[in-house]
Amino acid sequence: MFRTKAGDAMMELLIEWGVDHIYGMPGDSINTLIESIRKKKDDIHFVQVRHEEAGALAAASYAKLTGKLGVCMGIAGPGAIHLLNGLYDAKLDNAPVLAIAGQVETDLIGSDFFQEVDLTNLFKDVAVYRQTVMSAEQLPTVVNQAIRAAYDKKGVSVLIIPDDIPKFEIERGARKTSSFFVQSECLPQQKDVLQAETILNHAEKPIILAGKGAKGASESLITFAEKLKAPIVLTLPGKGIVPDDHPYCLGGLGLLGTKPATFAMEEADTLIMVGTSFPFTGFLPDTAKTIHIDNDPSQIGKRYLVDVGLAGDSELTLNQLTKLINVSNDGTFLQKYQEEMKDWWSKLEEEELDDSVPIKPQRVIGALQQIADDDAILSVDVGNVTVWMARHFKMTNQKLVISSWLATLGCGLPGAIAGRIAYPEKQVFAICGDGGFQMMMNDFVTAVKYDLPLVVIVFNNHKIAMIKFEQEVMGNAEFGTNLQNPSFARYADICGGIGYRVEQPEEIASTLEKALAQKKPCIVDVVVDANEAPLPAKVTFGQATGYARHMLKELFQEGEIHKPPF
C-alpha cells in the first residue's frame, strides 16, 4: 500500500466530513498540520485569526448557523488556553465543534517542557470527547470518533496532537471507518401523548414557549398553535423560529422580552414548552399545567415542574398532538394578547422614530430593519444591544447568531466572520456594543485580510451600559463602567476597511446603505444615548426602589442626579 503522512491523512478525512474551513493561528507545535492544510488549500481553507478565542467563537458561530461542524485550532499551551472561551460558548449552545490542540512531542509529555500544559484536564469540562493521540496510526480513527461525538452530543470534541505525530507515515487506505453521521427521529411514548392530549383539550388559556430545539419545526409549531388557539412566546435562542410579526407570536420572554408575553405567561393555565429548558423560571406561570417536549429526556423537567414530559422530536411530536387534540377554548385568551401585541409594536415603532440626539439605540435597530434583507445574517453581541435586537428587530427569514447561554462579550465580530464564510452571497451584520466590540476588534483585520464584506454596527455610548443599568436598579452608584474609546471609524480605515461615524438619527439608514454598497468590511460607529435604559417589560417594585436608592447615592456622593428611566 502507499504511505502518507498522518497529518495529510487527517486533512483528507476532514474534507470527507465536509470541513472546508479551519480557524486558527500557526505556531510551532502545529506546524506540520499547517503544512498539511497548505497542501489541501483548494479544498480546506485556513482562516488565520488574530486571537485563538476569535477562532473558537467563529467555529462555534459557524456550527450554530449551519448545523455543520465548526473547526478551530491552537498551539500547545497558550494557544489551547485561548480557545477555551469560544469552546464553552459552543458547549453551552450545543454546537458541534472540533478543536485541534497542539502539544509537545510525545517523548516530552510529563517533563514540564516549554509550553507544556495539562491539556487533558484543561478541556475536561468543556468537551464531550477528548483524546490525546499517541500514535500516527491511531490518528484517523480518533478524528472520526471525535467528529461523531461532536455531532451526536451536539458539543465540543478536542483532539490533542503531539507535535511529532502528524510527521509519521501511515498506510494510506488502511482506514475502515465511514465519514458520515446519521441521526434518528424519535416519538414520545403513547401513554404520555394521551395524557398530554387530555390536558390540552381542557386548556382555557394555553401558551407555547418555544426554544431553539423547535428549529426546523416552524410549520408544525404554527399549525399546532392555530389548532390549540395558543399564542407563541420565544426564547432568545428561539427568536426567528416564528416570524416576529406572525399574528400568534408574542415575542420574547424575560428581561429581554415583551409586555404581552410577560402578562400572558402569568395568566396562562397551560404551558407547552417546546425545545427549551428556559432558565429564568420566575417568568413562567406559578400554577399552570405544563407539557414539556424535548428530544433529550434529561432536559425535561430540569428547571421547572412539569405534568407531562414528551421525549421526542419537536416536529413529529407536534404533528402527532395536532392530529389528536380537540380543544374547547374559544380563543378569547389568544385574541386578548394579539390586541396587546399590536399596541406593543405601535409603542416600539414610536421609539424607533425618535429624533433625539444622542441617538436612541432603538432608532438604530429601526434603520437596520429597513436595510436588512429577509435572509441576512445577524450576529449579535452581548449587552444592551441584545435587548434592543431581541425586542425591536422583527425577524422574518434572517438567521440570528448569539452567545445565548455563555453570553460572552466579543462574540459579535467572530460570528459575522463565520456568517460571511458560511453564506458568502448574503448580507452580514455584526451588531455590537462598544464594550463587546473592543474585546475582539483586532479580528476586524481578519475580515479585511480575507476580503469578507460585512458591516459592523457599533453602538458607541462610552459605557458598559447594561452593567450601568444593573448597578442602578441594585441601588448602587455607577462605578467602573466608563469606556475610553478610540475612533472606530478611523480604526476601520487604518485596518484597510471603511469606517463611518454617525451622530444624527437621519443619517443612520443612508450610512448603512452606503456601507453595504462598498462590498468591503465596514464599521458604522453610531453615537448613542448612554442613559437609554433597557427596561424589562415589567418593572418590579424592587427595581424601582433600587433605582431610588441609586439616585440618592449619586446626589449625595457624586453631586449629580439623572432622571429615572421609568
UniProtKB/TrEMBL annotation:
The Thiamine pyrophosphate enzyme central domain, residue ranges: 196-321
Give the enzyme's EC designation. 1.2.3.3
Which residue ranges does the record assign to the Thiamine pyrophosphate enzyme TPP-binding domain? 381-526
Question: What InterPro entries does its record include?
Answer: DHS-like_NAD/FAD-binding_dom, POXB-like, THDP-binding, Thiamin_PyroP_enz_cen_dom, Thiamin_PyroP_enz_TPP-bd_dom, TPP-bd_CS, TPP_enzyme_TPP-bd, TPP_POXB-like
Source organism per entry reads: Terrihalobacillus insolitus
For this UniProt record, the keywords arranged alphabetically read as follows:
Oxidoreductase, Pyruvate, Thiamine pyrophosphate
What protein family does this chain belong to?
Answer: Belongs to the TPP enzyme family.
Key word Oxidoreductase present in the record? yes
The record, for Pfam families, names: TPP_enzyme_C (PF02775), TPP_enzyme_M (PF00205), TPP_enzyme_N (PF02776)
* Name of this protein: Pyruvate oxidase
